[in-house]
Structures are given as C-alpha cells and as structure tokens.
Amino acid sequence: MSDKVMANVQPSMHPSPKVIVSCRGKDGKNNALVVAYCGNCSYDPPMLMMGIVPSRHSYQMVKDTGCFVVNLVEKNYKETFDYLGSVSGRDEDKLNVKNVKLADGTKVNAPLLTDCPVNIECTVVDSIRTGSHEMFIGRIDCVHARPELVDAEGKLDLSKLDLI
C-alpha cells in the first residue's frame, strides 16, 4: 500500500445510472427530480433505494403518498434531464414547460415519464435519514420497458441502452 496516499473522508462512490424520480402530491400535481443516489438493495423481494434531500419539493410528495417511479434516462434525453435537475417544481410546472409525456402508473399513484425506456413503479416500505438525504426503500411493484429491452423470459437487457 506504499503507493497510495490518504484522501479526505468524503462520499467516494458515484451511483449509476442517474435517474429521474417522478411522484404525485396529495393534491394530484405531478413532479419529477433528478436523483443520483439510487440502486438495488434487495433481489428477494425486489427492492431499490433512492435518496432525496428533505428540502426538495418532491420529498414531501413521496413522504405523503408512499410511492414513486424511477425512470431510467438515455443520453438523448439529457436536455430534459438537466432541466428537471436544475429547476424546482415549487417554482414552476417544469414537466409542462418541457412537454414531458406522462402516463399514470398501473400499481402506484405516480406518473411514468413515457419517453424514458424503463419505468419502475415502487411503494415505499421504509426509509432512513442518512445525513443529507433520506433513503427511501421501495418495493418494486411493476417494471415497464420498451419491448426490445425484454427477452422471451421477461428479463431486462439494459446493455442495449445508452444511459446517462
């Protein structure tokens, strides 16, 4: 180990892929935010976790409704991704401004971003404050994917995507 030096203690892992999480408030208004902290946390039952800073507009929506959708994002959607990650739904209806196409979830009361190739509907089963973020554990209730991404056995092949 003599060829290594000590680095500052800081988050050192870079979650991938970055995703857009969509949700719906109790008032029926839709919103979406860019989330960097997202990943699988259980394969049986299938669950994932994603983190939101409590000051974000979508945070209370997820807390109140107990559900969300994780939308995987391709590089050709980067302009919309960047916009959704830089403007708050508190200030404007950013989904409408960017003409984001939505569909209702089939299992949860949250919208799917239909231009995204994969949408993962989740119900919150637990959460934990980890410091700057609250990590929401979501049971995966339904996965929607473009047909060319799903094989005959129903398995996703994400290698066919050029994700952000």
Keywords:
seven-stranded antiparallel β-sheet; 37% strand; 3 helices; 164 residues; mainly beta; Pnp Oxidase, Chain A; two-stranded antiparallel sheet
Describe the model.
The chain has three helices and nine strands, in the order ββββαβααββββ. By secondary structure, the chain is mostly beta strands. It is globular and about 55 Å long. Strand 3 and strand 4 form a beta hairpin. It has a single domain, classed as Electron Transport, Fmn-binding Protein, Chain A (Pnp Oxidase, Chain A). The strands form two sheets. Strands 2-1-5-8-9-4-3 form a seven-stranded antiparallel β-sheet.
Low-pLDDT residue intervals, each spanning 5 or more residues = none
Strand order of the largest sheet: 2-1-5-8-9-4-3
How far apart the termini lie comes to 34 Å
Class from helix and strand fractions: mainly beta
Quick one: CATH class?
Mainly Beta
How many domain regions? 1
Share of residues in helices: 10-25%
Characterize the main sheet.
7 strands, antiparallel
By DSSP, the count of extended strands is: 9
The CATH homologous superfamily name equals: Electron Transport, Fmn-binding Protein, Chain A
The CATH architecture can be given as Roll
